[in-house]
Amino acid sequence: MPDLISKEDLKEPYIVIKDLQIKDFSDFNNYFKSIVNHTEFLDSLDSNNHFIQLLNFGNAIASEIRLKILHFINLVEVTCFCELESVFKIKLSTLNYHIKLLVRANLVETSKKGKNIIIKLSRDFDSIIPTNLLNSFRKMNT
Question: Tell me, what's the pLDDT at 51?
Answer without folding.
Answer: 73
